[in-house]
Records
---
Amino acid sequence: MIVILKQGITQQEKDKVRSFLSEKGFIVKEIVGQQDTVFGAVGKVSIDPRTVELLPGVSSVVPISKPYKLASREMKKEDTIVQVGKVKIGGNRVAVIAGPCAVENYDQIMTIAESVREAGAVMLRGGAFKPRTSPYAFQGLGEEGLKLLRKAGDAFDMPITSEVVSPSDVQMMAGYVDMFQIGARNMQNFELLKEVGKTGMPVLLKRGLAATIEEWLMAAEYLMASGTDQVVLCERGIRTFEKATRNTLDCSAIPVVQKLTHLPVIGDPSHATGIRDMVAPMSLAIVASGASGVIVEVHNSPEKALSDGPQSLYLSQFQKLVHDIQALCPVVGKSLEKIPRVLPKNMADRSPADSPDSLTVAFQGVRGAFSELAVRRSFDESVKVLPCHTFADAFDAVSSGKSRYAVLPVENTLGGTVYDTLDLLAMHPELTIVGEQQVRVMHNLIVHPGTRIEEIKKVYSHPQGLQQCRAFLDRELPNAERISFFDTAGAVEFLASTDDRSIAAIAGAPAASYYGMEILRQGIETDASNYTRFYILSREENAEVYRSQSKPDKAALSFSVSDEPGALMDILKMIADKGVNMKKLESRPIPGKPWEYLFFAEVQLPETKIFDELVAEIGKKAVSLRVLGIYTSVIE
Ligand code: PEP
Ligand code: MN
């Protein structure tokens, strides 16, 4: 059962409730959620819930109807985020785990580790104990394999995972791996589950070949009841009558499981299909289904692989796959999980300043705005946000050191460039662009809980929100008055401040949940390809810490030219002659200089030497030149 505690419960009352439950024979787990703190009480005992409800400090008691308790969503509303080394799995991240089916030798695992890391994998896989269908097939290198996997993980700064097949290996393996893998064939090896659970370490739990979702969640329950709350579920295909693929990937299990449990679920397209060509499309299907990641087999020479060669991706195929996954992420409201690159020594000394609890990030708008979503995508969930009334306030916040970063929109796929950001950037030479983020703008009709569409007489939103949902409003709410508001989330804040059920707002989902309102209709925008791109800005001296997280591939410049024929063309020609790809060009009036313009260009970043030469050349010709930033792009 779940014991929901009152908000003002004292420590003494809490201790009393806990010992009451323990004395009755329950295992008690405290779960601190965003809204409530609860005790999960599990065990074979049954007592009258009213005896608990009467204890001081208890708000209510809810029985859990499912056979799995600790793993159930009823127990914990928020997504569990499993932490494996520096990597987080769950929430709105998509983590890519890659590596060979089996560790074969030093060169093989090092080569694969280096390339998958470079391509964007955040964790390395590799079997050392292989449960093969045939006793004559390669069984893995055993402990020697774990040593090699550990070396590769350390060399390329990735946590590692490997399959454990025997309870007697658990302690030995705990010294090497960061996350245990329980294979499909062992999903119901309860002695193994108990032994692994006892370590308290993260576990990747594959779904059994013929396991129902409930059996799979019961296996997770075994792990959790034994002592770990760090479980990642993995759908890897089930046995059906179909022979064209090795197994049948049950993508529908992903949203089902996500509803039933707070634990993250990822997918394994390699074992699900058994065929290399199917791996990329099924990876995308897994991500599209809402999974928190994929685990993919990759080999530097699949023809020579000692196991599962036919389903292993070539390194180049894997690179392309990560790109495609990254492009898909914003569609499903997620972003690709990244781990910080190894920092140069002097930067590493400074990086604790970027630890989430000391980090403040400014954005324009009220809580729940799309800009806040961009902040959450770019930083850890736990960073402090600083909502600012205007764009200028957000610039001032980062400029004065009140916040370390600011995240501001620069362009929308339907509305075009956000000029405020470019103009303010020109006025703040101390700031630099350190990164980019992208958010899909999905509009919703938001109301007080329980409101019916017939009750709505007025709809509030930012003019763009109203405009972007015109077809929906014309069709479903033709008589409702459309009222402009300064921003979308602000309209929801206003809605929440009144009791008026004849009002609705149009905004993003985070605003609805932040203000406790309900989404009556989801995705009501006319054009679904509606994305906003944001710049992540910082003061120059803080730039390296952020930039060092991933390899920059884009640069932004601003420049002005003399008033003579061909002045702009000369500069564009310099860019073209260096073979540099220009991504965007804008011009803005220069304040105080009537009819003079500042140009903004974004280019794909060439090799450092070429870029430096280009900057020097433009510098000679242009009246003014500033490199606004060198950063990692999001894929458009
Ligand atoms: C593996 O991941 O190497 C493996 C054997 O997977 P499964 O247990 O899903 O067959
Ligand atoms: Mn395999």
---
Amino acid sequence: MTDILSVRDLTVRFFTYYGVVHAVNGVSFSVLPEETLGIVGESGSGKSVTALSIMGLVEKPGYVTGGSIQLGERSLLKLSAKEWLDVRGREITMCFQNPMRALNPLMKIGYQLMRIHQAHQSSSKHDAARRAVALLKQVNIADAEQLMDRYPHQLSGGMSQRVMVVMALICGPRLLILDEPTTGLDVTVQQQLLNLLRELRTSTSASQMIITHDLGVVANICDRVVVMYGGRVMETAPVEVLYGSPKHPYTTALLQAIPQVDAKTDLTPIPGSVPEPLNMPTGCPFHPRCAHAMPRCSEVVPALVPLAERHEVACHLLTKGDDHVNFD
Ligand code: SF4
């Protein structure tokens, strides 16, 4: 199967007054057609900056300083500003964190939705309105016609998130990126949104990339996961492999830190804290917190090593010749 999106050795730097922030450091992954890919990591792991790079939205003092991003035949890092207008919003779209901030508070919902359709599809006002109402109904908004006439402040959090999803889907993109889509929603609305995203993947055929720090969301909806830390990919695997047999010490530690309703033992927190972006550790970025760290770990960055189909791990333990490492 051909990848829809292929990110290779992506490097992003922010040149600040205080020094150079190494936000993304040689990240590689791909998204398959009709796949839901989860990008997981703690704050500061580089997942949102990676998404912004894919959207061509990294702003000064940030720069993509290396690598490639391929969307089908298009090389995104080589697009001109004019070409981006054709790709962004039509072929790739993104739902940003906090929909209430992403919607324009001064414009009615209908106007905001229709403008995008008219801009990208050169459609009439009537056709754009029809498409917007149809999609609002598809995301289970019963009074879609009335909602077109409301302002963002008149919507609940769950409703705003659905409007953002409609906004992202209105031009039929190939790839939909969602940044922390469930943050701030209560658990029942969260579950409704995840069910909706699952349905939309089937009905629209758009691939989805979900950025989250919530491993529960990933288990619920994703086919495959990329685990990031310190601006690097630590492990990538199909969901059932990652949860059933994680190979990277960081993935294992993350899973051990999830609260279990029926757990009889205490949670195991990961010692220490995420590295300072201005002061990234040398070698493996996880080495100051890793229980398995060896002298080599602080000197050499481990390469991503394929273990099985679509399962890759970046850890020196796996290059010692034993691919069945027991991290217990
Ligand atoms: Fe731990 Fe070393 Fe593996 Fe990094 S490379 S996760 S420090 S064992």
